Amino acid sequence: MASLQRFFFLSSLIIMAAAATADSYVASRESATRRSVSDNGLARTPPMGWNSWNHFHCNITEEVIRETADALEYTGLAKLGYQYVNIDDCWGEYDRDSQGNLVARVSTFPSGIKSLADYVHGKRLKFGIYSDAGSKTCSNTMPGSLGFEEQDAKTFASWGIDYLKYDNCNDPGTSPKERYPKMGAALLNSGRSIVFSLCEWGVEDPATWAGSIAHSWRTTGDIFDSWDSMTSIADQNDKWASYAGPDGWNDPDMLEVGNGGMTREEYVSHFSIWALMKAPLLIGCDVRSITKDTLEILSNSEVIAVNQGPLSGGRVAVVLWNRGNSQAMITANWSDLGLLSSTRANVRDLWAHSDIGIAQGRLNATVDSHACKMFVLTPQ
């Protein structure tokens, strides 16, 4: 299993744990006879960055993208690892040009995509774009890449694209298993190393087959900025925990932290769970006007470290998550976490940024409604 990751359902109380060492990743997919996207060395940890869709939807312009790149830099988020600046749907003209190429929408991206990519690269950030494995994208406002995979991959490479999110709308009725490998192969042949983010919404259980063609795969439908949506998606994604690792990552969709539909404690839970699940951490709010609370959540370097690196020395990350409507005591027994009952462990609180003492046999915490506490246990 790529990481020891478990949900323990105790009524509405959940203990979630993950442990991994540098040696513990085990391939869950056949790979001996294929050339894989993992050969390009990208996304060996879950990608981190920003995506335009959750906040802006189709209301994107080159000015918004430039200002977002600036904001990632001046807020310090870029230094924490948020490196991808990704445009989602609606960036292109309705039709291809006379040579069959995708072209940027003149009214919103008058300088063109290459110029924008150059600007982002000038910030020492990386630039991502969006397309679709169908005839049109999900907005129905621009062409998809079905039947144009090689041509579009070469276009993306010529523009300096570093990341492609590839959606699943307006398909001709064929399986994603037939359509997505074509773009994966085209990207490998494009002459540029590009992260391939497969977005078929978990329709055909991509965790079981997408590791040979993509760096990440959506395991669920779209997230919405609500407690119910976030918790449902977390539950759905957990099913595929054993498939996450350096060969590819389960993607429960982008972060909603900071978009206003949840409380601060709910956003802390959202970020903690996504980090523990080794999900891509793609910010979905308007970074240009980010609040202090939102920045504090997204900037928690200790939580990010759990997401980005295997835990060495037998350490275990634990989230005690209260999904109930009132404060509750949650207990994580060592047997739940794969530890011997005699093990003594130092307990580090990742949100309080403090060591809280030594525990043996179990860990107890009082957790407010819809809140969580996140710890790293270091055996003595």
UniProtKB/TrEMBL annotation:
One of its GO terms (biological process) is carbohydrate metabolic process. Pfam families: Melibiase_2. It catalyses: Hydrolysis of terminal, non-reducing alpha-D-galactose residues in alpha-D-galactosides, including galactose oligosaccharides, galactomannans and galactolipids. Residues 1-22 form the signal peptide. Gene3D superfamilies: Aldolase class I. GO terms for molecular function: alpha-galactosidase activity. Its EC number is 3.2.1.22. GO terms for cellular component: plant-type cell wall. InterPro entries: Aldolase_TIM (IPR013785), GH (IPR017853), Glyco_hydro_27 (IPR002241), Glyco_hydro_27/36_CS (IPR000111). It is an enzyme of class 3 (hydrolase). Keywords: Disulfide bond, Glycosidase, Hydrolase, Signal. Belongs to the glycosyl hydrolase 27 family. This is Alpha-galactosidase. It comes from Zingiber officinale (Ginger).
